[in-house]
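Notebook, p. 212. Picked up where the previous page left off. The plan for this session was modest: take the two constructs that came back from the sequencing core last week, fold each one, and keep the raw output in the notebook itself so nobody has to go hunting through shared drives later. Recording the first one now, exactly as returned: residue sequence, then the structure token string.
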Amino acid sequence: MTESTPAADVGVPSTKPTRPELARPGIVTAAHSLLLAGAVGLAVWAATDHTANSPHTTSWMIAVLGILTALAVLSEMTSTLLPSGLMNISGSFLAIALAAVLLGGAPAAVVGSLVTGIGWLRWRERGDLFRNNLVTFT
């Protein structure tokens, strides 16, 4: 007869998965730092008006930015750990995408960096994972 697994154990690893160590963590840290600095620089450059005739694509509507940031932070704080234990699921990305559509890239980067920073206070992921999320959402 074929052996079957109980329904509660389907898709859940029996042991905690291991992650291979980084070969050169200093290079990864430097790359994350450079990417973050580049993202912040690009956001500042995109938020400023370069010529008198150029269309201004960023809209800093503070009320909308505050509401979207508050909803994204609330979603991040109430996120759920998946049964595999490897990832959290939340709706914060929806607020970041909505900020990008309604307000522009620079305000969306502000929302993404705030959500990532505040979310780290709850989950306390490792430094390399935190920097990766910060670069990704900024």
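Okay, moving on. Second construct, recorded in the same format:
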Amino acid sequence: MNKLSESNPMETPQSDLPQVIQHGKNQTPPVEGQPQQPKYDFPTEIIELPSRGLLYPEGHPLAAGKIEIKYMTAREEDILSTQSYIKQGVVLDKLCEAVIVTKGVKFDDLLVGDKNALLLAARAYGYGPEYETKVTTSAGNEVPITIDLSSVPHKVFDDTLITPHVNEFEYTLPKAGNVIKFKILTVGDQKRIDGDLKGLRKAQDIYGTQNLTTRFRYMILSVDGSTDKSNINKFIQNMLAVDSRAFREYINKISPDVDLEVEGEDPETGEPFRNNFEIGVDLFYPDFKG
């Protein structure tokens, strides 16, 4: 969590929290007898992933828990200003694909939380770590804040519940007692979810947004040992609300990500508040109006 400074409640202080960004220039002096790192025509950095690589298969290039990215250049700014990407909602994905240097990494394979860390690092190296944005207090007031992106920590997650290099978990619903096996979503999963939701928008008046149930469809691998998709879909539609909430809390407990939560005091009411700041296009273009 990021605490707003007491001296200036609208700014996050420099801290010794774990850094999202870990400096690791690839232009290291040669060491005799050791394989040399590749050299590029642009500076790069190695960043630590929130997942620590624990949910990628053994041998995967991200299993070591790190990813190498390049500094943004004018080419990446071209991507950010491409109106077709902005209208399609894919501009940040295109940027991530462009800055990844680590060989063998497919952007769609990244966990969503690891992608968030990559975005914060790309922004900090591209335009500096100071990010001016707004958060909404519990009273509904918008409060301007300044975030030091280099001090945004990784979320603490329970790695004792993880089988190393296996993205599969088991959870027993507290009320119904069904045993669910599920996975943490990747960027590729999120793209497919977004595609499904886009196709369902015409039926919103009848069925609602179906945001939650659609996410569950891509997460849940089996129910009581059954992997039949139709059975899983029917189960999801009829999941008790108390079980759905408990399941989501468990997912949050084990999901690697960056900690976007800030806490401070509402200047209008004087009441303390907690809320997340958002990662959107304005992370790279503060004046972006959508």
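Notes on construct two before I forget. The chain has nine helices and ten strands.
Flagging for discussion at group meeting.
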